[in-house]
Amino acid sequence: MVNQIRTLSPSTNKVIFEHPGTSLDEARAIAQASENAFQSYKQLSLADRKAIMVKALNIVDANKETLANELTAQMGRPIAYCTKEIDTMRKRADYLLSIADDSLKNLPGQAESGFRRFLKKEPLGVTLISTAWNTPLLGERLVSYFHEAGLPTNVLQLLHVGSLDVLDEIVKLPQIKLVSFTGSTAGGLRLREATARRVVPVNLELGGNDPAYVRPDADIAYVAAQIVDGAVFNSGQSCCSIERVYVHADIYDNFITEVQKELSTLVELLLVYLKITSRRTNKSSYKLGDPTDKATTTGPVISKQALKNIQSHIDDALSKGAIDATPENTTFTSLPAEGNYIAPKLLTNVTHDMVTMREETFGPVIPVMKVSSDEEAVALMNDSDYGLTASVWTKDIKAGEALIEKIDAGTVYINRCDYPSPVWFLYLSVVVRGSFHTDRIDIGPGLDWMEELGSWMYVGTARV
Fold first, then answer.
1. Which residue positions are annotated as catalytic (predicted)?
2. Angle at 413 between CA 411 and CA 418, to 5 degrees
3. For the chain, which residues make up each domain, given as ranges?
């Protein structure tokens, strides 16, 4: 396998960045340099480390427009939302910094005369973070910002790994004490196999086929707007996107009508990126097109292969009896000549025999299935190999809370979707559940994210 990083513009499929892949020998040297840097960096006080982080974040803020334009160029996200992504990152980072002292302080042990016990948090060591495909070029820029802020040399390094074979070997390096991977289920399972003979934590953030259930008492217009946004934002390219919708038979027809209105007419959009940002309150329509146009709400998907996969899921559903209920929208039918563009698609009359209801589509597809009861909805929501997030939409909060107790998902919402707060970032589940199915492997229930990057040391001292 060729070890090279190539970034193609989703808008044109032209190469905008190339970089030789990091070789295994280079990775060995980087890992050792990281280990050496760790030995001194761990002696730095928490206050000093936090100060470096704040400086780096301020540099990011000062370069927000540059980063936003590069996000649009590299992954096709509409420019209207890219600065908000950076704002979101800052909010999360500030929150984590604000709780760092309390989260990392020593825990007292059982009192005993003449003896002192406590648990001390120790840094774990070199961590390999394998991120998603989105922005390899931005990685270089962010590393430079942290170095500019005073982060010591080799504490943060970037590897361009363009070969899974090389990555398989890198994760086996003895200096690496934790592996964190974000990507496909297939990639995560491969990485887990590669680390099987090492006693190190492996955190996998993989795919989803996230369900939503609309109860008969729901505010149909509001829910339709939110679910369309949850399925279509960023062209459906979020692991927490809504990928299948179950609607009670009593309101099914009205719900479909409202979804069609959302996709075709001037509506109050609530487009949300990573659940905290990008809320639009101006009147505008869903517009598919050039992501550099500030009026665009839906840009291209990341690659030709992604486009092919999404279309195959649509074709499979239609061949098995699904109905294309997508309303007319001129931007949906006049796609740009270049790039990986696909219009949002509303599918009705879907069943669990269809691939889009069983596997991750990762595109702007809204398959809607009619159900007769809460019980049927929950059974269908749980009939999945995934369990990342799920949502219930209802005016009866108590009924919603009762339902989410029956849903097999690590994160569950009532009357919202795809919206991790800073607390979600700290704790891996809004409702603490543990691991479900294939989306989260080796992540325990409600583990503190900071604690995953360290280990507890028991200290016992006798007074003599």
1. 205
2. 75
3. 4-206+445-462, 210-424
| Residue 419, Cβ density class (10 Å: 0-12 exposed, 13-18 middle, ≥19 buried) | buried
**How far apart are the two ends of the chain, measured CA to CA in Å?**
63
Rounded Cα gap, residues 450 and 445, in angstroms: 14
**Residue 258 pLDDT greater than 60, yes or no:** yes
Half-sphere exposure of 197 (CA within 13 A, CB side): 6
Over residues 405-432, the mean pLDDT reads: 67
Average pLDDT, the chain: 86
Tens-place pLDDT, residues 227-245: 999 999 999 998 889 999 9
- Enter the CATH code of domain 210-424: 3.40.309.10
Q: At what angle do helices 220-232 and 252-264 cross, to 10 degrees?
A: 60
pTM to 2 decimal places: 0.87
Give every CB contact of residue 59 below 8 A, 6+ residues apart in sequence: 145, 148, 149
Q: What is the C-alpha to C-alpha distance for residues 224 and 214, in angstroms, rounded to an integer?
A: 9
CATH superfamily of 4-206+445-462: Aldehyde Dehydrogenase; Chain A, domain 1 (3.40.605.10)
Active centre residues (catalytic): 205
Q: Determine the Cα–Cα distance for residues 157 and 144; give it in Å rounded to an integer.
A: 10
